[in-house]
Recover the amino acids of this structure.
């Protein structure tokens, strides 16, 4: 199956822009989705179909995708955005998650 | 409102079997495929596969064939994940998640079921 590759960790100070990347050969043909998971909680969808934001997700969350790279951008990251982030897409076999990126905001 | 309610935590010995349930409500159960996802302690999310709730046809991700079986009871709008010959490395939180996204971008996941395999 295809793989999605994410950096293990990203660290920013509050108010800075956090960018989390997701690389995969299927991304030029498939949508990217982004989940946020805080400790002990179920994942929450923050971006779908590359760049759409679900109702209730703050505007500081945005997504983009170009070629084999999808990017989740958090503009003006807040302390409460500290979490694990997973990209997600479809591949030839079904679905696949990236390995996850731990975002630290401090 | 749409809800997916999973069965409670399980503690099993190696070699045993476990069956996790996911009861759906608030929508037509057979209209949406059901995914299964797991997360081992301290690890990432892993897609196990999905089951077509209309036909009952399952699809398993690589590495999850044989011991993992998806099934349905459409009369009670419930999907099941059965894992046989349990190993310590099967210790994880198992989630069901409805396929598809609503017009507002909502997705629906169960609350997760912790399966612990330990002697």
């Amino acid at each position: 199956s295809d793989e999605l590759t994410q950096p293990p960790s990203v660290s920013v100070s509050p108010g800075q822009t956090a960018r989390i990347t997701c690389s995969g050969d299927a991304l030029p043909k498939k949508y990217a989705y982004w989940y946020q998971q805080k400790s002990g909680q179920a994942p929450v969808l923050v971006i779908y179909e590359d760049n759409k934001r679900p109702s209730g997700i703050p505007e500081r969350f945005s997504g983009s995708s170009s070629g084999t790279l999808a990017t989740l951008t958090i503009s003006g990251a807040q302390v409460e955005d500290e979490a694990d982030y997973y990209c997600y897409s479809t591949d030839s076999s079904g679905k696949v998650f990236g390995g996850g990126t731990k975002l630290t905001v401090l | 409102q749409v809800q997916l309610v999973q069965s409670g935590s399980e503690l099993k010995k190696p070699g045993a079997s476990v069956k996790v349930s996911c009861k759906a409500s608030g929508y037509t159960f057979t209209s949406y495929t059901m995914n299964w996802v797991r997360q081992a302690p301290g690890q990432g999310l892993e897609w196990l596969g999905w089951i077509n709730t209309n036909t009952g046809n399952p699809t398993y991700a690589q590495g999850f064939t044989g011991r993992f079986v998806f099934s349905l009871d459409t009369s009670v709008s419930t999907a099941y994940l059965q894992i046989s010959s349990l190993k310590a490395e099967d210790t994880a939180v198992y989630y069901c998640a409805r396929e598809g996204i609503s017009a507002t971008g909502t997705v629906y996941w169960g609350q997760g079921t912790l399966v612990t395999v330990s002697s």
User: Anything to note?
Assistant: The two ends of chain A are 36 Å apart (CA to CA).
